[in-house]
Structures are given as structure tokens and as C-alpha cells.
Amino acid sequence: MGDTLEFNEIYQEVKGSWNDGRLRFSKQNVVYKSSKTGKVESIPAGELNLAQWRRVCLGHGIKLGTSTGHIYKYDGFRDTDFERISEFFKANYKVELSEKDMCVKGWNWGTAKFSGPLLSFDINDNTAFEIPLSNVSQCATGKNEVTLEFHQNDDTEVSLMEVRFYVPPSQADERQDPVEAFAQNVLSKADVIQATGDAVCIFKELQCLTPRGRYDIRIYPTFLHLHGKTFDYKIPYTTVLRLFLLPHKDQRQMFFVISLDPPIKQGQTRYHFLILLFSKEEDINLTLNMSEEDVERRFEGKLSKNMSGSLYEMVSRVMKALVNRKITVPGNFQGHSGAQCITCSYKASSGLLYPLERGFIYVHKPPVHLRFEEISCVNFARGTTTTRSFDFEIETKQGNQYTFSSIEREEYGKLFDFVNAKKLNIKNRGFKEGMKGKIDEYSDSDDDQHDAYLERMKAEGKIREEGNDSDESGGESDESFNPGEEDDDIAEEYDSNASASDSSEEGDESEDESAKKKKAKKAKVVKEKKERKPRKEKKQKDTGGPKRPMSAYMLWLNSSRERIKSENPGISITEISKKAGEMWRQLGKDEKEEWETKAGEAKRQYDKLKKEYTESGGGSTSKKESKKSGGKKDEKKRKSAGGDKDRERGGGNDSFKSREFIETSEESSSDSDHKSKSKRKKQESDDEEEEAVSTPASSEEESD
Length: 704
What we know:
Elements: E1 5-14, E2 17-25, E3 29-34, E4 40-44, E5 48-56, E6 59-66, E7 71-77, H1 81-93, E8 98-100, E9 111-115, E10 118-123, E11 126-132, E12 136-141, E13 145-150, E14 162-166, H2 178-189, E15 201-210, E16 213-219, E17 223-227, E18 232-236, E19 240-247, E20 253-266, E21 269-279, E22 283-287, H3 292-299, E23 306-310, H4 311-323, E24 327-328, E25 342-346, E26 349-355, E27 359-363, E28 368-371, E29 375-382, E30 389-396, E31 401-408, H5 412-421, H6 429-435, H7 439-450, H8 452-473, H9 483-494, H10 502-506, H11 509-530, H12 552-567, H13 573-586, H14 589-615, H15 620-650, H16 659-664, H17 669-694, H18 696-703
Parallel strand pairs: 5-8, 19-24
Antiparallel strand pairs: 1-2, 2-3, 3-4, 5-6, 6-7, 9-10, 10-11, 12-13, 13-14, 15-16, 15-21, 16-17, 17-18, 19-20, 20-21, 22-23, 25-26, 26-27, 27-28, 29-30, 30-31
Helix pairs in contact: 12-13, 12-14, 15-18, 17-18
């Protein structure tokens, strides 16, 4: 038999939900650690006086009782574990592990027994069910009945709201009403907060970031009372999970963070963290509303009746003494700016990320606390908005991902060293270790990988420069212009009886072949210009059809636009789109799946309406109108094409000069105008006659 026994996947019932964790039996104590919250329960071995082995819904369970009246129940054991645990309890705790049968008859008539913090309902001395009285939020009495209402847990799919007990009138003792006696037994152990008596101390007008506002904090022996102008919150100390004291980056303010489980509620909003903001320069003289003997007996030197100092120190000292939990402060981490935190953004809101000795905490909207033991891996990702920042991604073992973005690149080396020292699993570790401590190389590689648009613009500019160089250095500059050669080419194109030039007659056969190729090429260009297809008709929009459905992103944006505006007053339309894009990327798969389902449903509805619309003849009218308009446009194009031919043949375009015009330009300036006009008119009349003979269709269109 070893010194300890350890069991994984052991469940503990917390307000209607089963939370798993690890249970360890040692010679000194029994320790249970929750996997969800990391909260540790320790039961000293000397206080154990009851141990029962019971058949429950999750296999087998153990019920432990202490001499102080506390009851602890753990489920999820196997049948084969009974012998080992029984021997261990006899050897180390001197307690016998007894087997206890549960009643499964389903009767609703039995005996109610109060044993410490439990109300058990027994049938024939066998327990049918048990109710932890700490789960009771309200107890109401009637004539012969008592109604118990319960605290609600957001993690449960089905919740027990209330239970009613019928209490028959008692004939034996008429001095005390049995209904009132039953209610008093419930209220003595129930978690019903009643502000009776005076507060130990009061802190006036403290600035609270979550929930936002100014609150008076009244410190009572068993609970904390937040009193504001609009809302009141009563927080039992048993719901306080952790305390954090964090210095602001400006070194002039302090955050005091209280982690709560279960959270405080306001309507549908849940506050898992209470965040107070203090100025370091604000001092206070505090006097506790207790005698010095009571202070010494209750707090054992942790507090004194009269205290003075900074306001944040007084609040933290009082909370630490009443809650009996340690205050977590930042460890040895120091960023590039010398602060113990890193400026970043989470879910489109800017805040501070504090690397702690056993986890990370982000302050403040929304607050996030991640313990190292629940982190699966971390990743250093390239920034999506600018090359001067990077993102820090954390993925938990439950599959949740948290992305802290817009972290300055100078913080990379410090953060990587911290994560590496804590032995967290880093994605693409080899690449990151190569980049370790090389901030400039990091940003350079970021530029090379990210700015594809800049690279494309550089490539296009280089191509244009090369094209300009070839134009300037090629044989087609202004100096190489030869009017004589150009005349020959134009004559060959447009004159039906054009003769070869003198140079071509004196040339060899190779020159004749090159001239023929040139002719064929130019003729082909002219033919392609003539046969160029008209532009495609623009598709007419069908205004009578069903409206196209929106995408999942647009559906989400329409529902979230007002919320984004309210959270960011005075924001422009462009900034709304930018923030919405960042928030959409941060959404989890489950949240996106809801909107994708809605978009899919809208698409199916659109397809159905579209089919019905087309089957009923919808869209046919617009098609006919487009055909009519298309016919008119074709007719206009044919007319304009005929006019273009006339202009080409008549020399109306200055870029194409006829042979006669070039020859007359070499004569004297006085006769050139008159001769050129007469020859041009003659040429135009000849071309018109030839056009009428060769293409009668075009001439008829012109006459029309």
C-alpha cells in the first residue's frame, strides 16, 4: 500500500453541474483540484469522521464528513476501487468506509432530516435524495408547506428551480409551528444573504471598471456589498476564487481584480471578475467597526483596528484577511518598456496582458485569466493590420482560442523568453528560435511575406521601364522616319492598282519576299479592324425577381452594428467596418456556425422563390426588351461602320495620308493647296463609285 492514492476524472456536483478534477488521498489530507477553475479543496485527515461508499449516477461515489460539520461528495469511482480505498482509510484515517444503499422506489412520502449542511429525504431509512442547503437562495413558507428556491448555474442545460415540501401539522408539540421550524433549519445553513448588523468597514466612491461605475463597498463578515446608484451586488466570500493586485503601465495606478465563481449577475450579463482601479497617490485612514479584542481574535494579527496607508493597500489587506486567500502579483517578467505588462488588443478592445508566474491575465474588456496548466499551446503570429506588430495566440486544452493582437514587435524577444522559460508548447518552435532576439529580421521577413501588393507594383513598374527603354533604343525613333517608305506602304494598302517602287525592282528576291510578307501582314490588320466584333450587350437587370440572400457575415453585421456603435461612440462608418471584420475573425466556430446556418436557410429560400418566379414566366419581358434594344444598336453600328469605311478611303483621318497628297506636298506652297483639294475631291468621287459597285448594301444604308 503506497503513501498516496490518486484518481483522475473524479466529479464534484456544483449547483447542478458536474465539474471534473483530480482527487488525491494522502496520509495528511484529502485534496481535490477542479480542472475547470483550478480551485483546490483540502480536508485535513484528522477532521474526517464519516466515509460512505454509495451507488450514484456516475458509477460509485464517496461521501466524506468532517468534525466541523462539512460534507464533501465525490463521484466517478469504479467498483474495483472500493477495496483499495477502504484499506487506505483504515490504515491512515482510522475511519471505516461503509457501504450505504440509496432508495430508488420513487416515493414522495418520507422523512426530512437535517445533518449539517445537507437536507436528506429518507424513505425507510434509505436516502432518496439530498439537497445542499448552500444552494438554497430563498425559503418561503405557506400554511402547511415550505418552498425552497435555488441558485442558478449558467453551465447547466437543465436547472432545478424549486422544491416544495408538505409539512403535516404536529399533534405532539403545539408550541412551535412545524413549518416555521422547518424553515429555520433551512435558513440556518442556506446561502441567503441578509445584511444584518453593521459593516466591518466602508470604502466610499471606489472606481469600478467591471461592472462599470462608482460604488460604495461595505465589508461584512461573510459577504461583500457593492452599493451603486443603479445596482446592488452582494458577493459571498465563498464565491471569491482569486485576488490580483496589478500595477498599471503608467506606474501611477493600480488594478485590484477579484475573480468570482459563480459570477455576479445583472439581467443576462455575467461578471466573472470585479475590477477596481486606484490611484497610487490616494491615501486613507481606516478604522474597523470592531473592538481591538475582536479584531485580534478574528484576524489573528492580519488586521488592526486603526490602519492608514494607500487606498489600494487597505482594500487589498482587508479582502485578503476576510477571504483568506493569497494576493497574486506579477512575477519577474519585464517588457521592453520596463513595465510588467504588455499593451495589446483582445476582441477589438485595447488592454493590458500580464504574464504571471502561473498564468496570464488580461485587463480589462473582457477580462481573461488563463492558467498554464489549462493551456495546450501558444503561437506567435504575424500581425494582420501592420508590419510593426504581431499577435500572441493561446489555445486551451478545451479547444478555445484567445488571440491578443497589435503587440509591438519590440516585445517579441521578452515574451518569447518568458514563454520558453515556462516550458509552454510553442507552435513552429524551430522558426521562432531562429528569430529569437532578432527584431529587425522579424520585421523584414514580415514585410517580404506580407506586402505582396508592393512586390506586384514593383514588378509592373520594372516591365514598364523595360518597355520604355526598348522604345527609345529600338529602330523606331523620330530620326528613322522615312516618308518615302511610308508612302509605299500606304499605297500598297489602299490603292487597288498600286505599282511597286523603284527600290523593290532593283532589290533581290529576298527583299521581294519580305515585301510580300509585309503586305500580307498589313492587309490582315486592316481586315481584322473591319471585321471587329461589336461589344456585348449589357445584361438587363431583372427588377421583378426575388432579392438575393445575404452572407453569414452580413447577417451577423446587421445584428451587431448597433452594439458596435454603442460600445464605440463617435466611431465612423469605415472604423465600424474595420472593427466588425476583426470581431468576425475572433468569433469561434460555434458562433459562426449559427450565422452560417441562417445564411444557408436564406439561400435555400431564395432558390425556391427563384424557381417559382422563373416557372411563372418571370424575366421574359426584360429579355424581349433587351433583344429589341440590341437590334437597334446593331443597326446603328452597321451605319457607323459604313461611315468609317468612307473616312478611311477618303483620307478623312489625318494619320493615313493618300499618295496624291504626299506627292503634291513636295511642290511649291502656292499651288499645293489648290492642287491637293482638286485631287482629293477626285479621289473621293472615285472611291464612292467603287464603294457603290463593290458594296451596294452599305450605299443603300447611307442613302437611307
